[in-house]
Amino acid sequence: KIGKYAARFLGPPGRRLRALLVGRAGSADYLAAGAMQPTLVKLVNADLRPFMPGIAVPTLLVWGSEDTDTPLAAAREMERLIPDAGLVSLEGAGHYSYLDQPARFARIVSHFLAPPSAAAQEGAARVATSTVGGDRSGPGSSSPADRADRADRADRADRADRAEQAEQADRVEQAEQADRAERAEREAGPR
């Protein structure tokens, strides 16, 4: 606000001071917004929490653990307020987690959007009929939180499998190199 008043009342020197202050304190998005800066400010400052309980569709929240623009605490609040929400935190990712870890993001979303297995559907139906009007989560539940959790576990398992396959391929490559070196020594004969 100091910059705003300086620009208004001090003329050109005040505008330079405002630009300097905004350049040091403004986000890259704000600085790049140009003429849209007032709209961006209204959007960023809007409190949408009162609308979140009215979201009536399964919701997957994917957040970067290192997001400093919108911290993970905000995601947890959204998960709490949205009735049918699940949260997956991408370790080491920032505000644009889907760009920081695109392959992992795509796998998680794919798992989340995939139809639940027949066993999960059957279990969810059993839980739903036994808890009229109550909590419907349970071992066979396919709530977004459960689906987000399963998506995250499946992604971790996929990554572990790929790491194990890479290690195995490295061991095979090392063995083949040792075998080639041994053959080359035999073919070269005694020196």
Helix count from the secondary structure assignment: 8
Largest sheet, strands/sense/barrel: 2 strands, parallel
Lateral arrangement of strands in the main beta sheet: 1-2
Number of strands: 2
Strand content: 5-15%
Order of helices and strands: HHHEHEHHHH
Gyration radius (Cα, Å) is 27 Å
- The overall pLDDT, averaged over residues, is 75
Low-confidence stretches: 125-140
Global outline: flat
Helix content: 55-70%
- Overall structural class, as computed from helix and strand content, comes to mainly alpha
Terminal CA distance reads 84 Å
What would you say this structure looks like, in words?
This protein is mostly helical. Helices cover 64% and strands 6% of the residues. It has a two-stranded parallel sheet with strand order 1-2. Helix 4 links the parallel strand 1 and strand 2. Helix 6 packs across helix 8. The termini are far apart. About 8% of the residues have low confidence.
Features:
191 residues, mainly alpha, two-stranded parallel sheet, flat
Summarize the topology.
Blueprint: H1 2-25, H2 28-32, H3 37-45, E1 59-64, H4 72-81, E2 85-90, H5 97-100, H6 102-113, H7 118-130, H8 144-188
Parallel strand pairs: 1-2
Helix pairs in contact: 6-8
